[in-house]
Specification:
The chain has about 260 residues and is α+β, with helices and mostly antiparallel strands. It is built from 7 helices and 13 strands. Bound molecules: 2-oxoadipic acid (OOG) and magnesium ion.
Length: about 260
């Protein structure tokens, strides 16, 4: 049974307040076990509209739980998406204030920027590669609002798929010049290698995640517009960070990016 509009709005505020004020909440499915996947996305889209109404710009989208490493780490079996707001975005060399976050983790990702619209249903990897303007290196900082970073798929969707911050590197490349399947990444924290991976960790090929996003959005009548920035999902497992940590991710063919938690 679906939740009513008032409950969707209440839960959107509940999750978004926890994000804005950086405090933990219990999984919303504990109080609303009957909620559906559509309810979960309705909650996410309602919080997104609230941010826009307050003057924030939505600057991109993300896919999450697209790799076996992540699905296994979080105990879920399907990918999910979320949106990226203007204040989530940081550049290479940034300092990120950890006190604004609850229990952040970092994960290496490949970001896509589109040059033409992409829509489902039936969107496939060829459509994605043809519609991609360029790819660039990125690190996502996820910060589930749920206690101990534990959730089920509906709860995490309602919580904007744990979106929190992301950092992009300055090197853009044409997908024609890269093999995104074998593109390797090495993630270091304070000079120590903590995770390694290759693009194929993301559904066999990161562009597959973008096709999946277009197909999921089509269920709501939404389209990925030309110019959209999209995080395709973690290549590595997510690693917890603390104040003072220096994160460096080396991407084959896409350069290195670094930032610090202060
Ligand atoms: C959900 C978001 C996962 C990814 O890239 O797999 C994600 C979570 O693990 O908190 O962003
Ligand atoms: Mg991610």
């Amino acid at each position: 049974m679906s939740l009513d509009r008032a409950t969707i709005e209440k839960l959107a505020k509940h999750c978004e307040d926890a994000e804005l004020e950086a405090y933990e909440i219990t999984k919303i499915t504990e109080d609303y076990p009957e909620m559906t996947y559509k309810d979960a996305y309705d909650i996410q889209w309602t919080a997104r509209a609230a941010k826009e109404a307050r003057g924030h710009k939505i600057v991109g989208m993300k896919m999450g739980l697209t790799s076996q490493a992540k699905m296994k780490q979080m105990g879920v079996s399907d990918p999910c998406y979320g949106y990226l707001a203007d204040y989530f975005s940081f550049g290479d060399g940034s300092c990120i204030k950890i006190d604004e976050l609850i229990h952040p983790k970092v994960e290496a990702e490949i970001a896509f920027v589109l040059k033409s619209d992409l829509s489902g249903p039936g969107c496939h990897i060829g459509d994605v590669l043809a519609a991609t303007d360029f790819v660039m290196p990125a690190v996502e900082i996820i910060d589930s609002r749920y206690k101990d970073f534990k959730f089920d798929l509906k709860s995490v969707i309602a919580d904007n798929s744990s979106s929190s911050r992301y950092v992009t590197g300055g090197r853009m490349r044409d997908v024609k010049d890269l093999d995104l399947k074998t593109l390797g990444v090495v993630m270091e924290i304070n000079g120590e290698v903590v995770e390694v991976g290759a693009g194929a960790a993301v559904l066999g090929h990161p562009a597959t995640a973008i096709a999946m996003l277009a197909n999921m959005l089509a269920e709501r009548g939404e389209v990925l517009k030309a110019g959209t920035f999209i995080l395709s999902g973690a290549i590595t497992a997510a690693v917890s960070v603390k104040k003072g940590d220096n994160v460096t991710v080396k991407f084959q063919d896409l350069g290195t990016l670094s930032f610090k938690f202060i």
